Amino acid sequence: MSNRTLTDISGIGPSAAKVLEDHGISDIEKVAATSIEDLAQVPGFGPIRAAAVKAAAQDLLLTAKASVVGAKPESTKSNKRKKKKKKKKDGKKKDRGKKKKKDGKKKRKKKSDKKKRRRK
Q1: Residue 100: helix, strand or coil by DSSP?
Q2: Using one digit for the tens of pLDDT, what is the confidence trace for 1-46?
């Protein structure tokens, strides 16, 4: 992991990396191990940014370990959301209360049609 630097973490640029190094946090492992409260004490880091940077550092470590071992990294919530969205897009679109007439135009379903479906 010696070839990775703090700037490899999402949300950390050169100036933020310098500030972290000035506060004794010199590598990705230390960022991942440091508590959110301690990171929030660093100038330029609030609790929200500290949590985001810590999560990014942990993800970076997980992907690095997985690539060394050859295993896939654990899926994150954002990956799961992307997969769900893709499934929804790939699936057939729902009929939102409209039927096509024989001539290809759509017409609204009657309220009585909706009531019949509910009774079933």
Answers
A1: strand
A2: 457 888 999 889 999 999 999 999 999 999 999 999 999 999 999 9
For the chain, list the domains and their CATH numbers. Answer: 6-78 (1.10.150.20)
User: Does residue 99 contact residue 109 with C-beta atoms inside 8 Å?
Assistant: yes
Closest to 44 in 3D by CA, of 76, 21, 74: 21
Q: Is the pTM of this model over 0.85?
A: no
For residues 83-102, give the mean pLDDT.
Answer: 58
Long-range CB pairs of 59-63 (<8 Å, 24+ gap) are 60/4, 60/8, 60/9, 60/10, 60/28, 60/32, 61/1, 61/28, 61/29, 61/32
